[in-house]
Fold this sequence. Notes:
Elements: H1 3-8, H2 16-28, H3 30-44, H4 52-64, H5 69-83, H6 91-107, H7 111-117, E1 133-138, H8 145-158, E2 163-168, H9 173-186, E3 190-191, H10 199-213, E4 217-222, H11 230-246, E5 253-259, H12 264-276, E6 281-285, H13 295-302, E7 307-311, E8 319-321, H14 324-331
Parallel strand pairs: 1-4, 1-5, 2-3, 2-4, 5-6, 6-7
Antiparallel strand pairs: 7-8
Helix pairs in contact: 3-4, 4-5, 5-6, 6-14, 8-9, 10-11, 12-13
The protein binds guanosine-5'-diphosphate (2 copies) and magnesium ion.
Amino acid sequence: MSFFKRLFGKDKPQSDDQVEKKASLDAGLEKSKRSVFNRIAKVFTGRRKIDDDLLEDLEEALMMSDVGVDTTERIIERLRKRAVWEAYVDQNELVKMLREEIAHLLVGDDIESALSNHPPFNVDSVRPENGPAVILVVGVNGVGKTTSIGKLAHRYKSEGKKVVLGAADTFRAAAVEQLKIWGERVGVPVISQGMGADPAAVAFDTLESAKAQGADVVIIDTAGRLHNKVGLMAELTKIKRVMDKIVVGAPHEVWLVIDGSTGQNALVQATQFAQATDITGLIVTKLDGTAKGGAVIAVCDQVKIPVRYIGVGEKMENLQDFNPLDFIDSLLPESLDEK
Ligand code: GDP
Ligand code: GDP
Ligand code: MG
């Protein structure tokens, strides 16, 4: 029995919560799933033998699915090795092998232990003894930073945590306003000084206020910036330095938001940003409504930073924990008949 069956199998009892989460992941990835899976199904249809022709067609299908050149090559290489002793298989076996090889590529060979070693991110685990956990959110314009912060606030508040947001995107008045609207919607306070204020000063005020209120989690919004804008990257360094004065070790997490609907561009952005500054986690947004979800596989393979969450819609509930195995399972369902 494949490990996917063991992990997700129908014979395995699942809680309502697990079933609901899986259904919502499936729904969010519907477009990517349809295009990736259909492409791959086409390659496998009628084929019974893993030969160079099949691998070549599969390579093309993976590349077209935004999996990217390097990651595609690694997947093909793994399959080529397996092909030696599993030459004759049916379509569903091929799908299974592909799922398994991608899974091994992303989480290593010991899948079971990978699963137990990769629990969803727990914000309490980064929280210092006397102060809130502080998360700084960065990325280029329009990727979904502010929206993701709204969703995170909702999630942590639902877990019973006291959340405070800081409006350190002071570039445009609309940016501060947008975060305030999220604050009201979710029911958490937003600390701001308005447009043009020093973002470091806003961060300072936010942490002071959060500490005074005994908050559990602080999330700081920032203006969009490119990794190569020296002045703006220096501003990030300043924001970090100021925060550390109030809460030891802050920021405890720095999350880069990338727009999953930009496919390979998202991968390039993550790679470059991670070289320019310390990033501890990624949020990949807009995976609903795009067929480019395959890029997440390339991101996991090539950027050695964990994807903390994925965004699958504009509503506050549309943020999901990310687990590479669940993701592969949703993108490439078990058998061809399932589509
Ligand atoms: P920011 O400039 O990085 O702060 O980006 P915003 O949070 O303002 O988001 C830009 C646009 O992307 C907004 O219209 C959001 O509603 C939209 N958006 C953000 N995340 C998602 C997502 O997961 N799915 C979809 N469909 N839209 C999203
Ligand atoms: P500098 O601006 O490069 O000298 O760096 P600092 O570390 O001294 O301060 C960075 C920023 O943090 C300042 O520009 C202020 O906006 C803010 N800041 C520092 N101390 C305080 C403070 O006591 N109150 C407030 N509201 N902001 C502060
Ligand atoms: Mg924003």
